[in-house]
Specification:
The structure is a single chain. The protein contains 10 helices and no strands. It has 222 residues and is mainly alpha-helical. It has 2 domains: 59 residues, Homeodomain-like (Arc Repressor Mutant, subunit A), CATH 1.10.10.60; 146 residues, Orthogonal Bundle (Tetracycline Repressor, domain 2), CATH 1.10.357.10. The longest helix is centred in the N-terminal third of the chain and has 27 residues. The radius of gyration is 20 Å and the shape is globular. The N terminus and C terminus are likely disordered. InterPro entries: Homeodomain-like_sf, HTH-type_TetR-like_transc_reg, HTH_TetR, NicS_C, Tet_transcr_reg_TetR-rel_C_sf. It comes from Pseudomonas turukhanskensis.
Length: 222
Amino acid sequence: MAVKGKTADGGEQGKRNTMNRLLAAARIEFASKGLAGARVEEIAREAGVTKQLVYHYYGSKEGLFVAVLDESSDNIMSELVNLSVEQLPPPQAMRALLNHFFDQYRFDPFLGSLALEGIRYHDAHQTPRNRFLELAPALIGKLEAILLRGAASGDFRAGINPRLLLASASLVTTGWFTNSYSMSALAGVDTDSEEGMATWREYSADFVLASISLGAGIVNAS
């Protein structure tokens, strides 16, 4: 058990391990109960530390919540930025990126709930550090490179705004998880079912690709 800022295994590595346990426990608690309903005592118990140590590291429950959001954003965005698609033809590269958007939520049972809670929090608060915003330019650059290759190869229309495409593509793909009630009712399939997952994963990628393909009748906004 850790007390007064010390960790059981000592040193910086021990501190890092303790913080990792705290973030993992907090992620589940916040995703399950929201910021308002989450309890620091429960997070500390699950992580095997004292409540005082949580406050020592993060200052407050909100501070811990921001750290959880930051870590989640870092993991999500870093995966996307580092996704190896440069060797693929532009349509396949774009589909791989879109599918990865979807799969990050598909294979993480807490991400949809945590994302919704994070949206509510960021709508009402300003945080001094935000890895999502810090890594967004790199992801936009990656998307722009695919679009430029696609325009050169004749697969995509020229002059597509990568920022607007990224914003719309992320909503189309991940909305299956962050707005599951409406999506299930409108699409006519259960968002939690294998059929529903497979249907929307393919359809959402097809939808985005159709909007940027050469000859698509979409008004370009830049």
